[in-house]
C-alpha cells in the first residue's frame, strides 16, 4: 500500500511541477523586465 501512495504522490508532484513551472518562469521574466524598466536598463541583456 505504501508504494502505491508514494507513486501517487510522486506523480501528483511531477504533474504539478509541469503545470506550474511555465507560470513560474513567466512570472520571473515579468518581474525581471519590471526591475529592468525601473532601473532604466534596456529590455534585453546585451
Automatic annotation (TrEMBL):
What are the protein's UniProt keywords? Membrane, Transmembrane, Transmembrane helix
For this protein, the parts annotated as crossing the membrane are 6-31
Report the superkingdom from the record. Bacteria
Q: What is this protein called?
A: Uncharacterized protein
